[in-house]
Amino acid sequence: MTTFLKKYATALVFWFFAISGITGILMFFHIEPFGIKLIHEWLGWILVGAFVLHVARNWRPFLAYFKKLPIYLALVLAFVASGVVLAFTGNDGGRPGGPIGPGGPPDMAAFGVAAAVTALPLQQIAGLAGSSLEDLIAKIEAQGFVVSGPETTLDQITEGGQTSAASLLQKLLSQTQNSA
Questions:
Q1: Which partner from 7, 55, 69, 112 sits 20 to 30 angstroms from 148, CA to CA?
Q2: How far is CA 149 from each of CA 77, 79, 109, 156, rounded to the nearest angstrom?
Q3: What would the pLDDT profile of 118-158 be if each residue is shown by its tens digit?
């Protein structure tokens, strides 16, 4: 095992990090042909394994890092960077299917608008969407939801379910735009 570690541990970390970095960049820009996300996720696990082998191979030098300041500064920087990303993207990370739209960092004002619209009665949402109340109810029911009447809100319709009211609103608005 020691010969294997000496020969391959660093090379494995290098190449699997390169693959993870490239696929991560492609995913960031929403370029995901040929199973890029799958490659990123599964080969990421191999990267973790390669990292463990690399640390095992270089155990003493690894421990020496913890006697110096840079490792702790890097740790603080990593947590601060993570906090900044979360603060500007919300819980959905700006991902497709989240409450805002087709990806990218969401506009924070849109969260308030979506929350206000999902609290409106369906008859008002139909007017905003440029659709008839009957068409809107039909689209909601086609999604598998039960509508009790025109005064019902999307918040009430999705309460306790797997789909958020904002996600349902997004689907309804995209259907309305596609049919126009």
A1: 112
A2: 52, 48, 29, 11
A3: 888 998 888 887 888 999 899 999 988 989 988 999 889 98
